[in-house]
Amino acid sequence: MEEPEIQEIEGKNFYLINNEAKLAWFANETNKNPGARLNINAKLNADLDMGHKLWTPMVAGKGDVAFEGIIDGDGHVISNLYINSEEIAQIKPVYAQNLGFVGVLGNGSVKNIVFENVDIVTSTSAGTILSNTANQISVGAVVGWLADKKPGGVVSACYVSGKISATGNGQGIGGIVGNGKNGTIEHCLSAVTIQAEGNDAFVGGIIGITKATLSVKSCVYNGEGLINTGNGATGAVVGNHLSGALTTSNNYYDEDLKGVGKGSETPNTNKKVNLVNADDIACALNGGEMLDGYCTVASPWSVGKDNLALNGYGAETISILTVKETHYGAVTITEYSDKTVAEIDGDYTGPDTIEIKKDILVDQVVFNRKFTIGKMSTIMLPFSIDTSKVKGGTFYKFNRVVEENGVRKVKIGLVKTQQLGANTPYLIMPKEETLTFSGEVTFNTETAPIEQLVNNSWEFVGTTSFKSFDEDPELGNIWGFAGTAQEGVKVGQFVRAGSGVTIKPLRAYLVEHQNVALAKSASGSLNSMNWDVSYEIDVEIVDENDNVIASGKMNAVTGEIRMNSWFDLNGRKLNAKPTTRGTYYHNGKRVIVK
Predict the structure, then answer these.
(1) The pLDDT value given to residue 39
(2) Rounded to whole angstroms, how far apart are CA atoms 95 and 248?
């Protein structure tokens, strides 16, 4: 071992590493007991060949201490890194608990390193302490365990190729990080082949297991394979989202793999990859986006003559046909080689707004929202579509709100045009539990609605994000259709929203703007008392001549929408089902009585 020189860089002292002996000295300093130095910094200024000699991870151990410094590879290559848990356990058994270039990372960072031809062999039987502990074994080429530190460690702009072989039960194995609680993995490319044998082993192309608060963004998995023969799970990005908040975005991987092996994928989880040695992939790894053919972020990744390069240093040639998936809040758009599919999450409650600011042509729409048949609800679509290409419901548009004999009524009309407008709220009477769409559509949330749905103090408003209402006299009164039965409110009921009421994206609500309503009341145009105290609204469906063709009552406490009414062609309501032959309206539809 050889002690490196120190240089001050941007106000911090860094050990300059230009040979293998100096790197070994630096690692040894982090493992001294007592006196381990956990917040020292290192910077590589040469490529290193570790010669397939045994590497003891920096800050090795059970995770009670963690590395807090900076390791900056400056784009240099560390080749032939070799880690073997059984050999390491002979030095100290607990050193085989968390395996990687860095064993345990706290609030430190590892960045800008190319790891070529790593070889990691691990077993849960390594050492007497390990074989008798319930703690999981964490194995990652760059970091074994991202510790429970806040704000958490960062692994950034690292490339790894090689293989990881693991046997035994209860392991988290990842191409970049094995297991993590708090931290960020970003701009990393994993080309590692992983093979795991044993139960409860979780394998991820980027990270094996995530807990607490983890972010994986702008990463690519492009290894030759992830093999897991036990009862665990395997994912191209994450093996097992065990608990906590996992946020992933702009990640790429082979379309044959699943992004997250176990555990729900979060709102910003991206899936699947394109030709890797290409501008768009290099741009994604940099965390940028392509605008007019240029990436908004130019480094550290770039396209080389034959392959991607990290800070100008070439890695192995990479070429694989992949698929890209991008998330826009409740909307996920996946670009396959032969088609583009948009999936809408009808139960999305995440923080992100649907913002699609340029046209995206989509071949197929999958709408994951369950309706209650016969119970009216609201809907808004971020694309326009011909009504003949939508199956599963009848669409209505907001007309106006009136007061008749002291009772409020919402007048709605059947959509007569062939086109449902983008970003335009509608009411829908479901005929089936799900809606199906056919044909190409263009997503764009910047497209103006086909009409502004405003009537006096009332406005029909669509939503692009999960929204919570608070009672606010300045805002006015919010009304909406109940989507779930709770606290005495039934599905399909039109209710006035109190504080804490929520609405999901791509739905709509009526707002009574209080300042306008009060102004009209003062001028004598409205009965202020009736408008202030009423908690029930009638709904009437009218035709193009304003004849009532169906009616129903919706009460904020007890009423469901009930549309069991008959009208003649002149809009006169009948007391019962007609017995005379002729044409009538029943619940808004023409019916011939014979």
Answers:
(1) 93
(2) 30
| Domain of 378, in residue numbers | 342-512
* Mean local confidence (pLDDT), 468-493: 48
> Residue 553: CB partners within 8 Å, gap ≥ 6?
536, 538, 539, 559, 561, 562
**Is position 9 within any domain?**
no
Give me the mean pLDDT over the 93-120 stretch.
Answer: 94
Question: Beta-carbon neighbour count of residue 298 at 10 Å?
Answer: 12
H or E segment to which residue 130 belongs:
helix 128-131
Q: What is the pLDDT of residue 187?
A: 85
495 lies in the same domain as 567 = no
123-163 pLDDT per residue, tens: 876 544 454 444 568 999 999 999 888 888 999 989 899 99
- Rounded CA-CA distance 449/452 in Å is 7
Same domain, 158 and 180: yes
Residue 299 banded pLDDT, cuts 50, 70, 90: low
Dist CA 509 CA 500 (whole Å): 15
Tell me the C-alpha distance between 559 and 456, whole Å.
Answer: 26
| Pairing of the two strands 189-197 and 153-167 | parallel
**CATH value at residue 87:** 2.160.20
User: What one-character DSSP code corresponds to residue 408?
Assistant: E
Q: What is the dihedral of CA 510, 514, 520, 522, to 10 degrees?
A: 150
